[in-house]
Amino acid sequence: MKGFGIVVYWLGMVAESVIRMPYNKARSKAKLPAASTTLEKLLLNLLLVGMGLLPLLYSVTSWLSFADYELGTVWSGVGAGLMLLAVLIFWRSHTDLGTNWSPTLEIQTEHTLVSGGVYGLVRHPMYTSQLVWCLAQPLLLQNWLAGGLDVVVFLVFFFYRAGAEEKMMEEHFGLRYREYMGKTKRLIPWVW
């Protein structure tokens, strides 16, 4: 089942790249001063290692085979279902956010507060999609490094970034954002 998991994983990566492509091109050039930090950039690069480099090494070499484990066909199927869900949430959050999306902590001069669609359920649906991705990854890439390390890095990134992002949004949108925070959960609808 290793081949199945690898194919599904990389199909998810391609899907997310295709989904994000038009938003990268459509981003406004005019921005207010960015709130991103060196720590945020370091964490983003660690995410690239956890989501890209280690899975690539696992997929095309045997270098990480010492950390392999086997869960079986059913769990690979669960991983595939979670990957599909992650990609769908990722797509919907980009569609609802539109040109307000940015890879770093920044506000564009024509930035609007998006509170409809999936953003009516949670404040950070893109992070929700990445959390679901992190659940799928160790089921598809059954290796402690290629499958599991991304979970740890994502959680550190999320706890750092979500707080900084909410602070930035609250400073920019004020009471409207505080009211929005009172109506939505941070990551998981109706739970957290």
Which features would summarize this protein structure in a list?
single chain; 192 residues; mainly alpha; Four Helix Bundle (Hemerythrin (Met), subunit A); 6 helices
Short overview:
With 192 residues, the chain is an all-alpha fold. It has helices at 2-26, 38-60, 73-97, 125-140, 149-173, 175-183.
Total beta strands: 0
| CATH architectural arrangement | Up-down Bundle
The outline comes out as elongated
Structural class by SSE content: mainly alpha
The number of helical runs is 6
The N- to C-terminal Cα distance equals 34 Å
The largest pleated sheet is described as: none
Which bin fits the share of residues in helices? 55-70%
What is the alpha-carbon Rg in Å?
17 Å
Mean pLDDT: 91
- CATH level-1 class: Mainly Alpha
Strand content of the residues, in percent? under 5%
Oligomer: single chain
Order of helices and strands: HHHHHH
Residue ranges: pLDDT <50 for 5 or more in a row?
none
* Total domains: 1
CATH topology: Four Helix Bundle (Hemerythrin (Met), subunit A)
Notes on the structure:
The protein has 192 residues and is mainly α. It has one domain (2-12, 34-99, 115-183): Four Helix Bundle (Hemerythrin (Met), subunit A), CATH 1.20.120.1630. It is 64% helix and 0% strand. It is built from six helices and no strands. Helix 1 (2-26) packs parallel to helix 3 and helix 4 runs antiparallel to helix 5. The longest helix is centred in the first third of the chain and has 25 residues, at 2-26. 26% of the residues are buried. The model has no long low-confidence stretch (mean pLDDT 91).
